[in-house]
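From the shared-data thread, chain only:
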Amino acid sequence: MASGGGSTRGNLTEEQHNKIQNNFTFLIREIKHDPMCVADSLFEKDAFNEDDKEKIEKAEKDSRKAAAKKILDIIFGCGHTGYDKFIAALYDNQYYNAVFKLEPGYKGHRDNEPGITTYDELLAGLQELKSGLDEFRKGNIDLLGKRSIDSHRLRTMKGEALENLNYVKDKKYVETRALYEGLKILKNHQILGIVGAAGDGKTVLSMMIAKQFIEERPEYKPLLINDLDDLKEVSFEDDKYLYIIDDMYGKYNKLQARIDKWPAHFGTLRVNKERGKLVIIYVMRDYIYLSSKYQFDKYDLFVEHVEKTNKIFLHKGEFSLNTKEKGQFLDFYEISSNKIISKITDCFGFPSIASLCSKLTTDKLPAIFDSSHEFLILELETFWNENKYIYARLALVFCLHTVSEKDLKQNCPARVKSLISTVTKEICPEFKLNGAKRNLNELSDTFLKHYMNIFSLRDFVGVPFLHHLSVECMEMALQYCSFELLMSVVRTNHQVDRCIKIHDDYFDELSMRFLKELHDKHADIVSHPAFIDYKFLLHFLGRNDIANLLHTKFINLGDIREVQESGNFLHYITLHGDMRCLEAALFYFHDQLPQLVEEKTDMG
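Structure, as tokens:
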């Protein structure tokens, strides 16, 4: 049994223990909304010690519910004074429902002058009266005219929603055609779906629309619905609400738990919407929406009639960013290069524009642009953890570079079969080619390009994917990455930003890839910076049967006096390597040295 801090430890009295035990589930449901606030209060009151707090923080990493349960477990070992401090901590953090469930006649300590009644005490008094009123009046109407007092969680939800909406308003984001159209749909139909690719700005747009809506219709209280349990906190007896449901079915895959549970609420949502008590903004990623549309079509809440629509699509169609809006987008981040603006015609969404900007400007990009790479790394990491089936689909395209519909058939080419065998071994054992075309179509607006029945990764996805795959499966990353990525990103030492550093342990795999390129007559591979890294060069020259592969006079030597030059491997080492590299190359080629030295470069 865990023990608390302070001078009094031991078990609760039997009565105190039973009060908590009999209300255990109820208390967890109450405290889970902000368990660390309760833990901090108990620590300040010397009921918990440092070890107790550490246990609760560790539990919170699993879930807030686990943290709430851990608090109750520890309280059982805090003695009878620990119980009193627990009640006081609940009261301090405005968990009044929990306080009066355990101690109906509780009167909290106050520091105000005598005779002054605080609002909290008024609420406490009303709660105390409630049990008497219930005896003769089941309506549960309190003295303020409300049929129910907001729970601690509901007050927190209202506060968080207003804080987020005010933050978005203060940022003064670019107002697009999608904003005005979305506001119009919400006013007319009381429901709005915002569908787009990752990074399209769906969440910010939903906040902008919500803020303008409640400014015109202040009787609606905004709520951010992030958890299905949040719906249990809401009563429509007193207030009208605007629900903002971000990523309704999850971000990275159709979360089965959400699919199973959300439909149970659709009927209630529809009734309250039709009664004028509720308006709804829901946000979904394009590939999640496409794979879930069949389910939405079953419910009246989402059904569209011929004469109206209740959704906007940000990644394609009339409300994707036009050239003017993209220019405003760049101006917002104080990037006003005409060169960049002229290049973003085919871009959509944050990651695409950010990636292009990073290539076209030498100035330091704003932090939000610089984080595009990290944004996509996080996306891929979550795919890896939550849905490797989707990750495997992307890996298929990454490794093949381009995927045709022929490649997706059961009698696919041998190279595809070989890759599928690798994918099932290294990434997803359940991976199958069945349904691949449909899955890739669903991803094509976010991560992939689909043109003339050919799938390929979008330009801004390749580097982050190589980075992530190299962490999880370095051998696979080196074997299958494109020649362009191999030359521009893979390094044996850090020479460029966001390069992938290959350590000694993987020199064999990198050497094998280089040999493959030489066998395929890609002589320019020898101009890779790894060959002027003395440590790797020694490793590579120690392999058998490479002399003939290296003896070519068509290696790109770079610009010499502003003229493109080419020559043999020894020329390259002489021009670009240090003395140690030159000595290693001369020693390796000592038998062929006279012949190599006589060979001239293209420019003599």
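The first helix runs from residue 14 to 22.
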